[in-house]
């Protein structure tokens, strides 16, 4: 089997999916970085986020166009039926509680037009960046559950899998402080853990990262599943 190639997730998606003019829902949009990048590629995008701090940051950012942000969760999207051409889970399905992952994919199917695509991008529990983040939360089980939910949704006939791509997603951090802030924004419990383990995290961050161009770099193995609504 060939070695996974290093690609940015958005570039990988743009090679395989037409984005211009599409109505896209970004589930678990965080601070809205992907939302704005998709708008810059000509899409009409709605970001859905349940974290108050991240949602506030997304709404406060300089807009790229007419994007909008809604408060909500993947298993109960605040959107009408058939309103989207694409639904994206960018490293977010594993944050849905395991019992609700199937419902989140069903919700994606509900808001998609017939033949619309769900793009599920998930980090694989491997590599240096995973070694670092697992000190805050070990996500081996939830990431496996997210992949199982994708497989089950296809087996149940909700989606047809068009492609599965395993690749290396480059992660760039300006500093350890930027990494710690990003990890802590997910929720209050994580923020407390990051603060508690800061010395250990800092040491491992600098040992595992590749320092170049004034920043710190990691390769995160990832999997992109492209699913067509049946």
From TrEMBL:
Matches recorded under InterPro entries: Methyltransf_11, Methyltransf_Superfamily, SAM-dependent_MTases_sf
Every Methyltransferase type domain range: 25-119
Keywords of the record: Methyltransferase, Transferase
GO BP term, example: methylation
Coiled-coil ranges from the UniProt annotation: none
GO molecular function: methyltransferase activity
PANTHER family in the record: METHYLTRANSFERASE, N6-ADENOSINE-METHYLTRANSFERASE TMT1A
Protein name: Class I SAM-dependent methyltransferase
Organism: Azospirillum oleiclasticum
């Amino acid at each position: 089997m060939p070695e996974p190639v290093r690609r940015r997730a958005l570039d990988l998606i743009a090679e395989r999916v037409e984005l211009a003019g599409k109505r896209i829902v970004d589930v678990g949009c965080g601070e809205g970085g992907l939302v704005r990048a998709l708008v810059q590629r000509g899409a009409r995008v709605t970001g859905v986020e349940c974290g108050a701090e991240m949602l506030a940051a997304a709404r406060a950012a300089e807009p790229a166009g007419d994007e909008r942000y809604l408060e909500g969760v993947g298993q109960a999207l605040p959107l009408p039926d058939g309103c989207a051409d694409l639904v994206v889970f960018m490293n977010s399905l594993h944050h849905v509680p395991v019992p609700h992952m199937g419902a989140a994919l069903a919700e994606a199917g509900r808001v998609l037009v017939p033949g619309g695509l769900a793009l599920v991008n998930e980090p694989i529990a491997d590599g240096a960046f995973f070694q670092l983040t697992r000190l805050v939360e070990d996500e081996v089980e939830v990431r496996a559950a997210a992949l199982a939910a994708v497989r089950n949704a296809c087996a149940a006939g909700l989606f047809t899998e068009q492609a599965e791509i395993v690749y290396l997603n480059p992660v760039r951090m300006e500093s350890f402080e930027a990494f710690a802030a990003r990890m802590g924004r997910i929720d209050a419990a994580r923020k407390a853990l990051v603060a508690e383990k800061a010395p250990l995290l800092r040491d491992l961050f600098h040992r595992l990262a590749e320092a170049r161009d004034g920043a710190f770099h990691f390769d995160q193995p990832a999997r992109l599943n492209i699913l067509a609504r049946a």
